[in-house]
Request: fold
Amino acid sequence: MKRDRSTTVARAGRGSAALDLICCTAVDRRLAVLTTVGPGARGRGLPWTPLDPRGALDVTVLRWTRKLLGRAPSWMTQLGAFSAGGRHPSGAALTVAYLAVVPVGTEAPDGLTWSPATEPPPLPPGRQWILDAAIAGLRDRMDIAPVAFRMLPATFTLSDLQQVYELLLGRRLHKASFRRALQAAFLVEPTDSWRSEGRGRPAQLYRYAPRKRRGVRRSVRFELLG
Amino acid sequence: MKRDRSTTVARAGRGSAALDLICCTAVDRRLAVLTTVGPGARGRGLPWTPLDPRGALDVTVLRWTRKLLGRAPSWMTQLGAFSAGGRHPSGAALTVAYLAVVPVGTEAPDGLTWSPATEPPPLPPGRQWILDAAIAGLRDRMDIAPVAFRMLPATFTLSDLQQVYELLLGRRLHKASFRRALQAAFLVEPTDSWRSEGRGRPAQLYRYAPRKRRGVRRSVRFELLG
DNA sequence: GACATTGGTAGCGACTAGCTACTAATTGGA
DNA sequence: TCCAATTAGTAGCTAGTCGCTACCAATGTC
Reply:
C-alpha cells in the first residue's frame, strides 16, 4: 500500500491534477459502478489516472476511458472538480471526475469489477462523496440526456427501458403512462424483431431514434425545495 | 499586457490550476455578467485567481469571492473544470469555473463592471465558451435551485419574480399561470408591505420562504432531443 | 372624473397523467 | 387438450394542470 502510494505520487505529483472515472451500468436490476479490486489494496476504489491538463480535457478523458474499458462509453459527461484533501491515491490535490455509462452486459476489464452503486463496498472517504454526487448527477441528467437509453444495447424492449428508468429513479412507474409519454416524445422507433424470453408474450424490439419535435414551450416548473 | 501575463504566470505556474468566476445578475432587465475592465487590457475578461487546491474547494472559492465582491454571493455552484489550452491569463492549463448570483442592484467592485451576458463584449476565445456554458447552466438549474429568487432582494413583488424568470428563460410567461404554479409550490409568503412605483396599483411584497411539501411524484419527462 | 397603467383573479376549454381494466400471445403443466 | 400463469400492450375514465381571455382593483396623470 505504502509502496503503491509513493510510486503514484512520483507519477502524478502533489500539485498536479488527477482524473476519477465513475462508470455506471445496470447489473441484476441494480445500479452498478466500476471499482478497482486490487488484491493488495485495503478496499475498493474508483479507477483514476494522472491528468495532463494540456490538450482538450474531454478528448483526453475519452481516449483514456476507451483504453481502460476496451470500448468507448456509450455516454459521458463531466461531473466536476473536487479537492482531494491529500487523500487521493495519486497524491494530487485536485481531481476532475467524469461520469460514464456503458450498456448492460459490458464486462469489467481486468483489475476492475462492478460493485453495487447504492450500497457500495467501503471506499476511501473522499471517493464515497464523489460517488454520491455521481448518482445524483445521473438522476438529474436523465431527463435532459439519453442516459437510460445508453445503458441499453442498440435494440431493447420497452419493458427493458422502463426497468432502467425505475432503477435510475428509484421508484416504480406505471406501464401505460410510461409508454404514452414515450410515444409522445418520438424518441424510439420499432424494429421488425421480437424477443421471447421464455414465459409470456414476445416483446417488440425498439431502437433509440429521436426525432426533432417542435419545442412544446412547457410551463415553469417549481421543483425546488429548500 | 505582456508584463501582466508574466507576473501572473509567476504567481500561478504552468502546471497549476486557476479559478474563473462567472457572476451574474440582472441589469436593466437584461442578464449581466461581471467582467474585468482593466484600462490596459485589450478586451474584457472574467475575474480569476490562481487556485491553491489544498483545502476544500468550495470553501476556498467562497472566501475569495466574498473578498472580491465585498459580500457573499446569494447563490453559488461549481460549473466544472475546463482545459485552458494555454490561453488562460494565469498561465494555468486547467481552470475550475464557478457560477455565482447576486441580487439586482449589487454594485460592481473596483476594476470590474457588469457586461451584457447574452451579447457580451469581445472576450478571449476560451472565456466565451465558459460564459456560454454558464448561461446554459443557469437555465438548467433554475428549476431545481432558487436561482431566480437569489437574483432578487429579500422582499420582492411577484412581477419582479416573473421578470427574472422571463429574463432567464428568454421568453414571456403568462401572469396568471405563473402565479398559480407559484402558489401551488408553496415557495413564497406575503409580507405586510406594499410597493407603489409611480403608476398603477401597488404590489404586495413577498419573501422567499419555501415550505416542505410532500413529494408529488411527477411523471417521467422525456425532454431530450438528440 | 376619465384614462392610462400596473396588480391580481375567475373561469373556460384543451390537454395530460395516473389508474383500472381489459385484450394478446406465449409457456408449462394438469 | 385446455387452462393457469406470465408477460406485452391498449382503451378509456377521471382528476388535475396549463394557457388563455376576460375581468376587477387600485393607483397616478391629465
Notes: The CA atoms of residues 177 and 183 of chain B lie 10 Å apart. DSSP finds six helices and nine strands in chain B. Helices of chain B lie at 2-12, 57-69, 125-141, 147-150, 158-169, 175-185. Chain B touches chain A through 51 residues (CB under 8 Å).
